[in-house]
Amino acid sequence: MFHFHLFGSINDPELYAFHFWLFSCYMIQHPSNYTEEGYKLLVNLFTEAYDNEWPTDYILQKIGNS
Length: 66
Prior knowledge:
mainly alpha
């Protein structure tokens, strides 16, 4: 079910707004799949985005996908 939403969101603009949050939550729960530096960077980005209520467009700009 998770993968359906993760990959299905790429083709659906309404779901794509949640892509960052889905991917980030997965990565935070599975830190051994990534480098320690990558993990820390994403946790910091996730925390800033959540605390500051960043819109999806701004998050994508911050990670270089705009």
